[in-house]
Amino acid sequence: MNKTIRRASVFCLLLVLALLVRVTWVQAYQGQALADDEHNRRNLIGQYENPLGNIIVGGEAITGSTKTGGKDFGYKRTYTDGPLYAPITGYSSQAYGTTMLEGVYKNILNGSDNRLKTVMDTLTNKRASPGDVLTTIDRDVQKAAWDALQDKQGSAVAIDPATGEILAVVNNSSYDPGRITGANDEKAWQELSADQGKAMENVALRKPQAPGSTFKLVTLAAAIENGLVTNIDTPTGTPDPYTIPGTRTQLPSEAGSAACNNVSPRTALRLSCNNVFAELASKLGQDKMRATAEKLGFNTQIDTPVRTNPPSKYPSEKMSVDQVAQTGIGQFDVQATPLQMAMVTAAIENGGKLVAPHMVSEVTDANGNVLESFKDPKSDQVMKERTASMLQDAMRTVATEGGGKPAQVKGAEVGGKTGTAQRGVNNSKSPLAWFTSYGKADGKQIAVAVVIENSDTDRSEIGGGKLAAPIAQKMMAAWLKK
């Protein structure tokens, strides 16, 4: 063989080797990456090739699957009482993706999670049988909130303070996720997306708003923790009329100046006297107020496992003295979700211990074997037990003598706090009506937060005690009377 042929042969051999290396690289590495790519339509088809796993409430599935009769997708998702459970399930759509628990546990529910695979599934590269997601939601509490909200636009959340289990998450307005599960549901999607998609807003978990006077619980907690309040029955010395620090603006209270002048913290909470809580926040300062709020969950994304995004907020940027005072009454730039205010109340009821809130108890495979368990959640002592006891005492007065009377549950101890939050420039929008409360009886306990965004009530009659407290009462009664 002459030199030219030999060189040509070596060159061809090198080309073949390079080709083999490239093919191996594409098949072994890039092939898997392409197979796993979220834009690979084969993956989407595979997700709906068989029935999906289910989301469970009280031992019964609130989701299902039905045959499509279509060419690409064998099945599509269905929902039982879709609008009732939409804030929990979210949707699983062949065209628009997944949200809420459907999104968090997508791989469990469609069988692609590696933990579901048997040895035979691994050898044959077959998609495993899907698993299930067991929630902590209580049907009765969920339904009680839903029924009570029907003539109002608002949201409600309930938590078991001792376990952190979320018992209810309800929004009204809501939507039926079953309308958008198919590949050709564009019309329904456009209808739900109209008006900035408010029908699909998860107000309970993902829409922080001014909490109004319910935030006074955080202010009072900070004052007790920092030694500014040592007895809730001692007059504070705070005058009314009260001028906001750093301004010439007087801060009014609904109860009037005579009722709120130089009152005790107990009376201030019962009458919701703005002067007392603005003064407490002013004396504490921004850093101490923020520290207490953050211990209770503000400024933190909370995974329930559905993530609260954006998180509830206590301002981190430097504030002026008048702005700090306004945060003491839940205004200026303080924002909270019903979940967040339920967490505040849960910590107060639970002796100052905040148990991580969660709406899933277990994730299982097709045979019921537990893959994930949330039955031992993290807990933190976020305030002294004495502080929590003093707050409970003051909240009981609100529920027995103040605006929280409509929340009373026969045979149970109830404590609460009302709130009305201004909205819009110069208070141009309808105020938010808030109520947060705890109830306990016979070894059971519950913490609830309700916000009403709009109702047919005359503006002058909008208030947390009138609009939101009756809803909280029905939720607490549904749990405590089981």
Automatic annotation (TrEMBL):
UniProt cross-references to InterPro entries, sorted A to Z: Beta-lactam/transpept, Beta-lactam/transpept-like, PBPA_dimer, PCN-bd_Tpept
Occurrences of domain Penicillin-binding protein transpeptidase (ranges): 154-476
Pfam families: PBP_dimer_2, Transpeptidase
Chain positions covered by the region annotation Disordered: 401-426
Domain Penicillin binding protein A dimerisation stretches: 53-131
Source organism superkingdom: Bacteria
Segment forming the signal sequence: 1-28
This protein's UniProt keywords: Signal
SUPFAM superfamilies xrefs: beta-lactamase/transpeptidase-like (SSF56601)
Parts of the chain that traverse the membrane: none
Protein name as it appears in the record: Penicillin-binding protein 2
Organism for this UniProt entry: Streptomyces goshikiensis
Lineage summary: Bacteria, Bacillati, Actinomycetota, Actinomycetes, Kitasatosporales
